[in-house]
Design goal:
By secondary structure, the chain is α/β, with parallel strands linked by helices. Helices cover 39% and strands 20% of the residues.
């Protein structure tokens, strides 16, 4: 008997992309009402990887109507039943983990070594919020003299979820899972540069038994589909991950319909290394948090502030490690940095090489493209930098690190806070008092002491200043996707003042 070999995950991906990716609306796979499609490309060589339906206001309206129609039944479904469905989603994600990793690496250029965990983290997100579905409506008991006040929460309604092109599968689950657990219905608009795994996630949720209309997917561009979603009157809230300028536009576009917005935006995050730190561990963490995921992550530590007494030694070791980072095919398990997502992002990152030179910084390592094919950039290290330079103020979003020396704790805190952003910060010191004092002074929504970014799902995730509005994680997610209402019960002793009563006085 002849055995026919199964296609490789790469071949299987290309087979499925022979037909355009379609929207998923009301439980059906449909083309754009305009019939239009757009191309998306493989970052490794910029060849067309596939086409996707190009959604517009008509597609968004159809999806919003489907989410609106499905909302009453999904809201009424018990938390226990929602939990079971979300657990089924998590199981199916894990069953397709390898295919998801290959698709994500091919579509985004992220190294497969990191994308192997994308499905695992997404499954964890679904299980974590599934376990909280039964208690999502819980509130507080607030008794006072003569009254019992208590609060309850209810889902806000259909919500729009707009996700980015960096690690899109995991980040989509980070938004969609709590929305579903809370009892909301969803219209998802993924980034046009990386639409593949959004389609896979929609397939999985449909297979898991999520009812028709509860989750809808519309591909398209921000200027058309995204804008229509933020303005649609049936969409009660928008959860967005992306750059700060786009977040500002979304807030303006949602103003006329008084939308609630959650904006997870950019960062120019400092890692501060004091001379009493464990320098070997600090070096590992600083490198990991900027050069992993191609430097295309909002929490990357793109500014390295090093106390002057250890600066030269630290930078010498840093430069040797950066020069040794392996750049290559994202599907090669040995690759540590792959190609950037898109030629436009590639050109943006490369533009900072000239900006660094113009401002007087030194390109210690990198500062150049690799090869003539694809969006490959050599991991880059800027030294002799000042905090007022563009390379220290603007979010580059690539494998580029800027090093700035400091002298005192006060200098370090001033430099760390002197940027428009305030998402994350990383602090390396073995002085307990300094660690607490410095952390309290940082204008950052999240701070890790003697660690890289290690997420604990119940904790709040979000930033200050231009890094966003609102918090994800644990119960903080439900604060966004649910309305809190108060019920006041008179226990019998209270009477309202009497107005308009007849007078007892004689004329």
């Amino acid at each position: 008997m002849t055995t026919i070999p199964s296609p490789s995950p790469v071949d299987a991906l290309h087979d499925r992309l022979r037909e355009p990716l379609r929207h998923f609306i009301g439980g059906e796979w449909v083309s754009a009402q305009s019939g239009d499609t757009f191309d998306f490309h493989a970052p490794s060589d910029n060849r067309v990887l596939g086409q996707a339906a190009s959604g517009d206001a008509r597609d968004i309206d159809r999806a919003a109507q489907a989410a609106h129609a499905a909302f009453p039944a999904w809201k009424a479904l018990s938390g226990k039943k929602r939990r079971a469905l979300l657990y089924r989603v998590a199981d199916l994600i894990e069953a397709r983990a390898h295919d998801i990793a290959v698709a994500e690496s091919t579509d985004t250029g992220q190294p497969i070594r990191f994308m192997k965990s994308a499905a695992v983290r997404a499954a964890e997100n679904f299980r974590f919020f599934a376990d909280r579905a039964e208690g999502a409506q819980d509130g507080l008991s607030l008794p006072t003299d003569g009254f019992l006040n208590y609060t309850v929460r209810q889902p806000i309604g259909p919500v729009g979820v707009i996700t980015p092109w960096n690690t899109p599968f995991m980040l989509s689950s980070w938004k969609i899972a709590p929305a579903l657990a809370a009892g909301c219905t969803v219209v998802h608009k993924p980034a046009e540069w990386s639409p593949v795994t959004a389609t896979i996630l929609a397939e999985i949720m449909h297979e898991a038994g999520i009812p028709a209309g509860v989750v809808n997917l519309v591909h398209g561009f921000g200027e058309s589909a995204g804008k229509a979603l933020t303005e649609h009157p049936l969409i009660r809230a928008i959860a967005f991950i992306g750059e700060s300028r786009t977040g500002s536009l979304i807030q303006k576009q949602g103003a006329d319909t008084l939308k609630r917005v959650h904006l997870e935006l950019g960062g120019k995050n400092p890692v501060v290394v004091f001379d009493d730190a464990d320098l070997d561990r600090a070096l590992d963490a600083a490198i990991f948090m900027i050069y992993s995921l191609n430097g295309q992550r909002c929490t990357s530590s793109s500014r390295l502030l090093v106390q002057r007494g250890v600066h030269d030694q630290f930078v010498e070791q840093l430069a040797a490690r950066v020069a040794n980072i392996r750049v290559g095919d994202p599907l090669d398990p040995a690759t540590e940095v792959g190609p950037l997502i898109h030629p436009r992002q590639f050109e943006k990152v490369c533009s900072y090489f000239d900006a660094a030179r113009a401002d007087g910084a030194t390109i210690r390592v990198g500062g150049e493209r690799i090869g003539d094919t694809g969006n490959y950039v050599r991991p880059t290290l800027f030294t002799d930098a000042r905090n007022d330079m563009r390379i220290a103020q603007e979010e580059i979003f690539g494998p580029v690190l800027t090093v700035i020396p400091f002298d005192t704790d006060g200098d370090a805190l001033r430099l760390a806070n002197d940027v428009p952003y305030g998402l994350a910060a990383y602090l390396w010191t073995n002085d307990l008092t300094r660690a607490h004092t410095f952390a309290h002074g940082l204008d950052s929504g999240m701070i890790w002491v003697n660690s890289e970014n290690v997420r604990h799902l119940p904790t709040p995730f979000g930033g200050m200043k231009a890094s966003g509005i609102g918090r994800d994680g644990g119960d903080y997610s439900f604060d966004f996707y649910m309305e809190t209402k108060n019920v006041a019960i008179n226990l019998g002793g209270h009477r309202a003042q009497q107005l308009g009563m007849p007078s007892n006085k004689e004329n």
